[in-house]
Amino acid sequence: MPVPGHIVALGGGGFSATGVPTPIDAFILSLAGRPRPRICFLGTASGDAESYLARFYRAYAQLDCRPSDLPLFQTPLTHDLPRFVREQQAFYVGGGSTTNLLAVWRLHGLDRLLREAWDAGAVLAGMSAGAICWFEAYLTDSVGSDLAPRQDGLGFLSGSACPHFSDDPKRRPTYQRLIAEGFPAGLAIDDGAALHFRGRELADVVSERAGAQAYQIFVRDGHLVEEPLQARLLG
């Protein structure tokens, strides 16, 4: 059986925050395993915002890669989706509305195409919405003013996920409460930190700033447990 590729899930940060490439951006490209990999930006969660797309190109133009993008809000679509997706070695999914992202991807069949690409060895990466969409369940602010639990993720990875964990004061107590009440156990990620999955197995936790890390949150013997996952600081 083929071994799926990589998933890199950032709680926040990367070029989205700085406008310039960070060590995590370089780390994502290194996982493609070839010189000048093709990496496609998916800005669906932000409605293909032009300012976000410009930040991606400014940042990744400074790295050894071939950047491109796949807009889904233009009419008509200008790409042969199956062929275009097959040609990429990596994808970077920007932040924004997770629920909108999932709806649009499913409408166009991009969820299935990304699964096929990942199964064939591609790197799937993203921050915030682009991090949690790969899981079965997630905590989001995409459906109203309050944080809400959702269980309609892509399911490439099991369990749930929460971004911006130590940076948004509402995230930790809300995520902990939900898991204590029966929401799927999962992984929480600080801004500046990222989970690296090789296939479906968590292989590493990396960070681009000191102090940023991730956490496993689950219930054991009726008690909520939060276990820090120390991140490896990238140079």
Can you offer a commentary on this structure?
- With 235 residues, the chain is an alpha/beta fold.
- The chain has a single domain, classed as Rossmann fold, CATH 3.40.50.880.
- 27% of the residues lie in helices and 30% in strands.
- It contains 8 helices and 14 strands.
- The chain has helices spanning 15-18, 23-30, 50-60, 81-86, 98-108, 110-119, 129-132, 171-180; strands at residues 6-10, 38-42, 66-69, 90-93, 123-127, 135-140, 148-150, 157-162, 186-189, 193-198, 201-207, 214-220, 223-229, 232-233.
- An 8-stranded mixed β-sheet has the order 3-2-4-5-1-10-11-14.
- The mean pLDDT is 95.
What's the helix and strand layout?
Elements (H helix, E strand, L loop, with lengths): L5 E5 L4 H4 L4 H8 L7 E5 L7 H11 L5 E4 L11 H6 L3 E4 L4 H11 L1 H10 L3 E5 L1 H4 L2 E6 L7 E3 L6 E6 L8 H10 L5 E4 L3 E6 L2 E7 L6 E7 L2 E7 L2 E2 L2
Parallel strand pairs: 1-5, 2-3, 2-4, 4-5, 6-8, 8-9, 11-14
Antiparallel strand pairs: 1-10, 6-7, 9-12, 10-11, 12-13
The gist of it:
With 235 residues, the chain is α/β, with parallel strands linked by helices.
Tally of alpha and pi helices? 8
Give the topology string: H per helix, E per strand: EHHEHEHEHHEHEEEHEEEEEE
Biggest sheet strand line-up: 3-2-4-5-1-10-11-14
CATH H level, superfamily name: Class I glutamine amidotransferase (GATase) domain
What is the total number of structural domains?
Answer: 1
Give the class from helix and strand content and strand pairing.
alpha/beta
Taking the alpha carbons of the first and last residues, their distance comes to 35 Å
Helix fraction by DSSP (H/I, runs of at least 4): 25-40%
Can you identify the CATH class? Alpha Beta
Gross geometry: globular
The assigned CATH architecture is: 3-Layer(aba) Sandwich
For this structure, the CATH topology is: Rossmann fold
Largest sheet: 8 strands, mixed
Poorly predicted runs: none
How would you state the average pLDDT, rounded? 95
Tally of extended strands? 14
